[in-house]
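Task: encode each sequence below as structure tokens.

Item 1
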Amino acid sequence: MKITTERPAQPAGATTTRTTATVIQLRRSTPQPARESLAAGECTIVSFPGAGAARSRPSTASTEAPPLTVTAANLRLRNERREAWRMAERAVNYWKARRDLQCAVACAQTVGIAEGQLQPPTDHDEHWDLVKKWRAALARQLLTPAPDLAAVRWKQAFLNSSEAVHNGVKTSQVERSIADDIAFLAAHPFRKGGRKAPSAF
């Protein structure tokens, strides 16, 4: 922008001088807010774009569980067998307890013990029915996969007992079950404290 100025009128014969000046006005490309004066003890917080987003970005680390070790995998397989074994063992113990209780009540009633009279009269046929159910539970446990060596020893001890001939399970079946158990335990070793073998016969 140009500005022209003239001096005041001069006496006749004086020379008039005209002066031209150029004024350059500077303008910022983007308006900036006026700075506010800070009181003593105050400060300004400068935030950088993208810094918060970087902190809140979800972790890309894998959340998958690490693979099982060989020992842990073997333990899991044995635990699956152990649950089935315990179910079979509890069934055997239940029917054995029922058989023993019925036999005890029958003996008490026969000899005239007062406590025996508190129970319903016993039936001889009921006794043999309980024996059959107990032996059937025993047969199922003998063919249930063993979870440890204690269970294998229990099967082996059963074959050497007098009850083996009355159980209804062939000796060859039990021997094959024991052989399968030993092969499984050898292929899936796991060190653990021994467990007392059950006595159900």
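Item 2
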Amino acid sequence: MACVLLVGFGLLLLAMLFGPLREMVPFQVATVESGSMEPALPVGSALILRKTASNNVHVGDIITFSRPGSSVRETHRVVGMDVTSDDTAFITKGDANPLPDSWRVPVSGTGWVYQFQVPYLGYLLSLINPLHVRFVIASIPVLALGGAILLPLWFPSGVTKGLAGRTKLPMPKA
């Protein structure tokens, strides 16, 4: 029973980190792919981001967001607020860029705020980024756990005990 719970927990964890339940995890990992935030965030770094309510984001914070009208994710610093009678938006800018971004990021819901970085780890993560590669990597521990559960069921007397009693064939003479 404990093994079944362990496998179930492992599958849930994999779904939360790599699958459809990813938004439930209070953190995410992002990779720095351009030099727009150098020297603070060097290219190839892995960023650890924390889910944060947008009203808790302040000028000076580094946020990761989708560009308005696009699925492209950016990680830039909040350099100001654009307050109008209709809404409020963040003004963002890459530290290495001379001007603020041309878009505004609406202040609503939750978003991702930079917590810390791991230099060079982003290069490794970019190698395992395609979905099929992540699926294969995530499947390895699940298959290992499944094998650990099923082998004793398939071979109740033990795999090595079954081989120990076999008759050895004589070596051929040269």
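Check on item 2: Residues 131-154 form the longest helix (24 residues). The longest strand covers residues 73-83.
End of task.
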